[in-house]
């Protein structure tokens, strides 16, 4: 169920759905997604679907991971990336193989702890984790040339716009939990912000505050 053949099938599917960046496809071929989901779910880990990871959260669908990563790297490889919503840690793990340094913020401490253990087991050491409300970004390490948000706010948080470097790109799902969410690409130029709607998507909500469980 987690064999290389099963993984290769997923990569073929991502390519069929329009993912072209070979670096991303290669990293996704190699990264063991089954180690980022509960064992009970591991037989489904190379299906192109989101899966529950506990605490009412989900690991994103591989196609969405690939798509958001492709958009984020569309202007070349940034020196660092800020991710909001560590969750299982899978998206950040993919980014860690493509950019020099990843910063990721999560509000549920138990998910953060699990992600940290996974990185340790996999020998990944270029991801810095912070337990906080990601709406505030991570100002200490900003501005960031690339920001990826993996939970949906109703509006783009101001702090994230402020921490986006000039020339930088942010990928973020925006919208309500009942209606349709839009995946936005926001770029910052010297004269302001530019927004492009990419796809209709469905993400868990970006919630307020950090929780200790
Ligand atoms: N990137 C993750 C996707 C996880 S789902 C992965 O690859 O598995 C979205 C995550 O965002 C959840 O873990 C949720 O707890 C987290 N989240 C929601 N609101 C947040 C906030 N305000 N700050 C930080 N993390 C938040």
Summed up, what is this model?
The protein is α/β, with parallel strands linked by helices and 213 residues long.
Would you tell me the structural class of the helices and strands? Answer: alpha/beta
Q: Biggest sheet, open or closed, and with what strands and sense?
A: 7 strands, mixed
Total domain count = 1
Total helices: the number is 6
Which percent band covers the strand fraction? 25-35%
Helix content: 25-40%
CATH class: Alpha Beta
| Number of separate strands | 9
Fold topology:
Elements: H1 4-16, H2 22-30, E1 51-54, E2 57-59, H3 62-72, E3 80-84, H4 90-96, E4 101-106, H5 109-122, E5 127-131, E6 144-149, H6 158-162, E7 164-174, E8 181-189, E9 192-201
Helix pairs in contact: 1-2
The protein binds S-adenosyl-L-homocysteine.
Characterization of the model:
- The protein is of the alpha/beta class.
- The protein has a single domain, classed as Rossmann fold (3-Layer(aba) Sandwich), CATH 3.40.50.
- Helix content is 28%, strand content 28%.
- It has a seven-stranded mixed β-sheet. Strands 1-2 form a two-stranded antiparallel ribbon.
- Helix 1 (4-16) packs antiparallel against helix 2 (22-30).
- The model has no long low-confidence stretch (mean pLDDT 96).
- Bound molecules: S-adenosyl-L-homocysteine.
- S-adenosyl-L-homocysteine binds at residues 57-60, 84-85, 87-88, 90-91, 105-108, 111, 133-135, 150-151, 204, 206-207.
């Amino acid at each position: 169920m987690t064999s290389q053949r099963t993984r290769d099938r997923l990569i073929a599917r991502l390519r069929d759905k329009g993912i072209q960046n070979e670096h991303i496809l290669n990293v996704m071929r190699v990264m063991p997604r089954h180690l980022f989901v509960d064992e009970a779910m591991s037989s489904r880990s190379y299906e192109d679907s989101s899966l529950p990871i506990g605490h009412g959260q989900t690991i994103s669908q591989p196609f969405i991971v690939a798509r958001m990563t492709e958009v984020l790297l569309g202007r070349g490889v940034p020196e660092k990336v800020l991710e909001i919503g560590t969750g299982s840690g899978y998206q950040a793990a993919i980014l860690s193989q493509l950019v020099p340094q990843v910063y990721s913020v999560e509000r549920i401490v138990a998910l953060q702890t699990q992600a940290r253990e996974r990185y340790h087991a996999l020998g990944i050491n270029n991801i810095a984790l912070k337990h906080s409300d990601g709406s505030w970004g991570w100002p200490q390490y900003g501005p960031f040339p690339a920001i990826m948000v993996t939970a949906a706010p109703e509006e783009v948080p101001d702090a994230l716009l402020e921490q986006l470097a000039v020339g930088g790109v942010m990928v973020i799902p925006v919208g309500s939990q009942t209606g349709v969410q839009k995946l936005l690409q926001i770029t910052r130029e010297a004269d302001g912000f530019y927004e492009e709607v990419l796809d209709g998507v469905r993400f868990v909500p970006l919630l307020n505050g950090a929780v200790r469980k």
